[in-house]
Design a protein that fits this description.
By secondary structure, the protein is an all-alpha fold. The chain folds into two domains: 90 residues, Hypothetical Protein Yqey, Chain: A, domain1 (Orthogonal Bundle), CATH 1.10.1510; 50 residues, Arc Repressor Mutant, subunit A (Orthogonal Bundle). Helix 3 packs antiparallel against helix 4, helix 5 crosses helix 6 and helix 6 packs across helix 7. The chain is globular, with a radius of gyration of 18 Å.
Length: 152
Amino acid sequence: MLRERFSDALKQAMREKEVLAVSTVRLILARLKERDIEVRPKGNADGIADADIQSMMQGMIKQRRESIELYDKGGRPELAEKERNEIAIIERFLPKSMSDSEAEAVIKETIAAIGAASVKDMGKVMAALKEKYAGQLDPSKSSQQVKKLLGG
């Protein structure tokens, strides 16, 4: 489903002559193709799943946020602004992020469903959260909350 949205968005951006949107969607498609090629030896000829695509895009956003920080420190506001605009374009394809209270409720629910009792179960909880709520939860914030709730 996401793959179709990328193609449609690329066509739309080209029609509307949105240069930054065209280049950003092409970057997403290029990274997606790289990831698809990486999983072929593992017997996955269809490419990566939507959850993995969302995770890949979260990584792209993280890279851009790091770049923004460096550009701001280096006195390059025009490059920082370009990165911010790219983040906005990438975020169009991700589901809306959960608020902190929504995230906490989902994490508590997942912990209860799995029956996690200690920090040793953190990996199971994080895997379940990633599988079910990819793109909606910030992984670093989630891991901190899970650790806190499991008494870590």
